[in-house]
């Protein structure tokens, strides 16, 4: 069986011939990989910022955003049968008895850092013809989502963020109506965040680097979220134009624009960080001003990573809702499909919105 892997320590990406995976327990499921999404995390793995092989091995099979089709189920598996579409979760709990998060089924909040992540940290990913996974980590996707369900994992970032947002805003002693939201960035996580925020009732504006016209701006405006370029409109001017927003959803990993955007956040507003910073550029920050904005306006900033069981279920339901609300627009976020052998090239690809590795079109 073919698998796309990164070799250690060379960090070279290769297509390997690996043994066919088999069921080892009655709760496992064998899955045929259909599609694997490529994202900034893969880029970070190739650059050496992330990525570790399973213990004792010299390579890591890549791929953490996946859609597959069930081939075979163990004797104790319920609710899944051959032919069903499935999306796997990424993170697996750490082994420590003292980790409250993992022991409560929430490895996304793991406190020890000893979790594993398929395709990222200590466990092989899904970029292989087939893989085996415990049924507990698989989510059934409706057949109608065949063309978009590979976007489930990046959408779970927004689902978890919105879930945390609603917990935080329950601090306010009145029913908070959605109001205005600003999305920083226009990549796939941002675009899916736009849809999730709009679905939740927010009036959404996108603020990103490239001036219009460009395909990311077109994608957000196609679902009704105006796009403003940070090269053309300063944060101060944005504040005047929008008059302040209730939620900022950051999906760039660029710390300067993230902290600057606090100027646009209303009293009691919430800034959600989802981008992982990569450039390590020094940041000049008016610390007292930031502290003042937080304290004197009851503003909250929080970071969020990975997602839980319920976020995957919610994301799959939302993909169906998005398709009904904006026909063709979710599909349009996947701008290119490539064969598995091009993984390394795809990671470096410029342009487009979401790039996906397709096993169906190319490998069979
Ligand atoms: Zn990803
Ligand atoms: Zn843990």
TrEMBL record:
Which co-factor is required? Zn(2+)
Glucose dehydrogenase C-terminal domain location is 148-358
Domain (Alcohol dehydrogenase-like N-terminal): give its ranges. Answer: 26-142
Q: Name one Pfam family in it.
A: Glu_dehyd_C
Q: Does the keyword Signal apply?
A: no
Q: Does the keyword Zinc apply?
A: yes
Keyword annotations for this protein? Metal-binding, Oxidoreductase, Zinc
Q: Which InterPro entries match?
A: ADH-like_N, Glu_dehyd_C, GroES-like_sf, NAD(P)-bd_dom_sf
This entry's Gene Ontology molecular function terms read: metal ion binding; oxidoreductase activity
Q: What is the recorded name of this protein?
A: Glucose 1-dehydrogenase
Which organism was this protein described from? Answer: Corallococcus exercitus
